[in-house]
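ok so i was messing around last nite and threw this chain in just to see what happens. nothing serious, just curious
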Amino acid sequence: MFAAPSLIWHYVTAHSYRPPAEFIEAVEQYDQGWTSDASPWIPHDAVRITFN
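result:
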């Protein structure tokens, strides 16, 4: 599981930051279905953001 600051999109688009290959692969394989399940790694009050 990876976590990223909310400004990751800004760093990538404005500053040409390239996250590690493992992070990019994890993002590409992301399954939105898991977000409805409880997770011990995600605080219960975390804000979940989805991108379309």
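not much to say yet. Residues 8-15 form the longest helix (8 residues).
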